């Protein structure tokens, strides 16, 4: 089980998680651009870029619609868990009985 300095939270059915913690645990490198308020993650041949407040992310040069925009909470960049995990090749499972999210990588 992973614990994060900033706890995940749910907004309109979308779980938001601390971006750097998730990206790095999935093996990606992370770059933050404060001036543009963008974050870029790279793993193997996958590049993902998100902009705070935007409902569009860019994966390998292609626009992808997000259920919820990336946002800042308590100085942490929070991003939609399912999009980030699946974009980096992981599987996400929600267990409603235990309110637990399981992320599996190959």
List keywords for this structure.
106 residues; mainly beta; Copper Amine Oxidase, Chain A, domain 1; 5-stranded antiparallel beta sheet; 4-stranded antiparallel beta sheet; 2 helices; globular
Kindly describe this structure.
The protein is mostly beta strands. The protein has a single domain, classed as 2-Layer Sandwich (Copper Amine Oxidase, Chain A, domain 1), CATH 3.30.457. Helix content is 13%, strand content 48%. The chain has helices at residues 19-25, 81-87; strands spanning 9-11, 14-18, 29-33, 38-43, 46-51, 56-59, 62-65, 71-73, 76-80, 91-95, 100-104. A five-stranded antiparallel beta sheet has the order 3-4-5-6-7, covered by helices on one side. A hairpin with a 4-residue loop joins strand 10 and strand 11 (100-104). The chain is globular and about 40 Å long. The model has no long low-confidence stretch (mean pLDDT 86).
């Amino acid at each position: 089980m992973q614990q994060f300095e900033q706890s995940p939270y749910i907004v309109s059915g979308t779980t938001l998680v601390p971006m750097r913690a998730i990206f790095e645990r999935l093996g990606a490198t992370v770059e933050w651009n404060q001036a543009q308020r963008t974050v870029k993650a790279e793993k193997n041949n996958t590049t993902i870029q998100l902009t705070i407040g935007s409902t569009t992310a860019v994966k390998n040069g292609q626009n992808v619609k997000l259920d919820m925009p990336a946002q800042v909470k308590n100085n942490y960049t929070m991003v939609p868990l399912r999009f980030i995990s699946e974009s980096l090749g992981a599987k996400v499972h929600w267990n409603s009985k235990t309110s637990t999210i399981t992320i599996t990588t190959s």
